[in-house]
Amino acid sequence: MVEKQFKSLQELIDRCTKHDYNAVKEAFSMKKVYLNTDQRADYIRKEIFRITEELVSISQKVPALKSIAFDWHTPNFVWETSFYEYLTIAERRKYIAFPYDSFDDKQYIENPASYDESLPYFSDIIELLVYSQYLEDLQKTETKLLPQPETKETTIDSQEEVSSKKVVGKENPFNCTLNKSEIRLLADCVNEAHIFTTEITPQILEDFFYCQLTGALKSTNNRLLAYFMMKLSAHEYITYEWQSVVANNNLVLAPMKEKYLNASDLSTANDNIKYISPKKSEVIDKFIKQLKKG
After folding, report:
1. 244 Cβ contact partners less than 8 Å away, ≥ 6 residues apart
2. What is the pLDDT of residues 115-133, one digit of tens each?
3. Three-state DSSP class for 196?
4. What distance in Å separates the CA atoms of residue 52 and residue 59, rounded to the nearest whole number?
5. In 10 A of CB 172, how many CB atoms?
6. What is the pLDDT of residues 160-203, one digit of tens each?
7. Calpha distance 78→91 (Å, rounded)
8. What is the 3-state secondary structure (H, E, C) of 227-243?
């Protein structure tokens, strides 16, 4: 009975989200017609900031909405994720008791908040889902508008080819600028925040940043790992393209599966922390402040 009612709730959410999202998408398409390429890029950038602020505002209202911000890609998220657990008993009873066949689409369109009393946070849920999809579209569109780097063809004279020579020096895919004392400080940060399942030494962290690990580290929380790496890249201690370096060098295993984190996993985690900082992010912030003081 309970699961059946929440399945009906999910179907209703999906229907209303599709309607509202199509309206937003159509409005965006119409606006693009009146903008040249430069104006379009500027408008999209401003929209990304605006929608991100809206998402943060909605997500912070109650824990149930915050859970959707992280899990909205999951099919049947109202039942399969932590959304149900975050609801109060009174809120669950309202969702279970609601006669979903009586839902009036016209009434909802005219006043989206009209069902919020009988279906807690309903209009907020729809808005959160619509904005999340819209933000993804904006980010993809912005990427397409960015100038593509020119590929330069290089020719090598066969007579100038050098036979295999040993290249000296330490490879630095992360473009790491951290010295040994800074790495020692960050090792304490990683252990206190519990970013990996094992406690690490400064040497292990240094091997991580120079892609010389003899094995792999295992993430406890991809969003926390992304927050740590994002903070370092924001202050130019490592490259902005850290996601590709981690993925290409098989440096980290996923929390729940015996597989290496790929660029998509890390990109998703990085997108999620734009809305809400992960638990223990304050530990990372504390160490980053110490790092900046020198």
Report:
1. 263
2. 999 999 999 999 999 999 9
3. strand
4. 10
5. 14
6. 444 455 555 567 889 999 999 999 999 999 999 999 999 999 99
7. 13
8. HHHHHHHHCCCCCCCHH
